[in-house]
Here is the input.
Amino acid sequence: MVQQQADKILEVKDLSLAFGEATVLHQLSFSLHQQEILGIVGESGSGKSLTSLSIMGLLASNAIVESGEITYYKNTGEAVPIHSLSPPQLNALRRSELSMIFQEPMTALNPVYTCGFQLREVLKLAGDHSAESAVEWLKKVELKDPERILKSYPHQISGGQKQRVMIAMAMAAQPKLLIADEPTTALDAHVRRSILDLNKRLSKAHGLAVLFISHDMDAVRYIADRILVMQKGLLVEQAETNQLLNNPQKAYTKGLIACKPPLRQSLHRLPTLDHLDPTPSPPIKASTTDAEP
Here is the structure.
């Protein structure tokens, strides 16, 4: 899927991020296009979540942006420099254009408020004060018995239900760009597949661009149009999903794919990245327009 420049909704260019003297992102560059699902994969510590927090303007106060630009493109064509917005401007952008599903819904949801209260607060920020809207959004994320869910506290519903509530809250403002950071990590296989299906359906139904972050190569294979591979803050490889998974170019990417044990074969020793690829791959200078040919 070759994307045109005019379809671009997000561009990250030469982003370097540090904590103290330790640089944790190294000149990261990539782009995301309208109605595209872009997967970012890599081990823990590769910089996936820091990338998403940088885009959302949610970095810790001790984070130092050493270089780079993050630009969001509105439907009107207006370029918004996220990296230089003030906190009030960032809040306004997050209320209307950008949204995020966080990794662990049990900690992302406030345990002292009902799910309904939290969802209605998001709707109010988006300017929707209708009493029926919260129920309608829970129906859109395919939750059965939405009235009961609205009255429930987070600890009273299952992990999959909490994740659907989080998706409803992220979608309620009807954003143009959705970031999903490890949204299926704590879920069993059946629920994980249903959440991935839901994300795909909502993306198509609402014309969303999605940045899907995961360490699960199978999840990214299933949902993403294009994949970026990160290692230790470096962008190692990027390509369309089928191309990258069927013909990976870098040793680290090959190692990630090989680390998934076969379902119908019992191995004497499970493969690890240290065993398959003990040395980091060199970074590539990523294109900020299209995927690699």
About this structure: The beta strands are 8-19, 22-33, 37-41, 63-73, 79-81, 98-101, 177-181, 209-214, 226-231, 234-240. Residues 280-293 have pLDDT under 50 and may be disordered.
